[in-house]
């Protein structure tokens, strides 16, 4: 199921170009167009879910698959050994701008917490 106005649904359908890093059966990983770290890749689901909570409730195992795919991306990008973040923003107040579940794989520089 897809949403006609969703940017990520359009990317999955091949209607909007994106730099694809990896493709899985139920996920696709693309480079973020506004990277916040040297490695910034989005792992998105092929099927539309508005956020991580929705996918977790509706499809047992898909969040697990996204986490495994994120690790594969981090390994391929050379940041798995030094560490990376996997971030899910849920809701506009948390910074989610595209309401289609996606995990941000961030790595390639030190990311101390709290940010300086």
From TrEMBL:
InterPro entries tied to this protein: Histidine_triad_HIT (IPR001310), HIT-like (IPR011146), HIT-like_sf (IPR036265)
Among Gene3D superfamilies, the record links this protein to:
HIT-like (3.30.428.10)
Q: Which Gene Ontology terms cover its molecular function?
A: catalytic activity
Pfam families reported in the protein's UniProt record: HIT
The residues covered by the HIT domain are 7-116
Give start-end ranges for motif Histidine triad motif.
Answer: 100-104
Q: Which residues form the active site?
A: 102 (tele-amp-histidine intermediate)
What the entry lists under PANTHER family is as follows:
HISTIDINE TRIAD HIT PROTEIN
Descriptive protein name: Histidine triad (HIT) family protein
């Amino acid at each position: 199921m897809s949403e006609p106005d969703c940017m990520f649904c359009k990317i999955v359908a091949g209607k909007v170009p994106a730099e694809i890093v990896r493709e899985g059966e139920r996920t696709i990983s693309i480079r973020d167009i506004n990277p916040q770290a040297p490695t910034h890749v989005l792992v998105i689901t092929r099927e539309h879910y508005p956020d991580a909570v929705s996918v977790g409730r509706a499809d047992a195992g898909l969040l697990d698959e996204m986490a495994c795919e994120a690790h594969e991306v981090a390994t391929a990008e050379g940041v798995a050994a030094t560490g990376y973040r996997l971030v899910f923003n849920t809701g506009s107040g948390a910074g989610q701008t595209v309401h289609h579940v996606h995990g941000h794989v961030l790595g390639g520089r030190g990311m101390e917490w709290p940010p300086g």
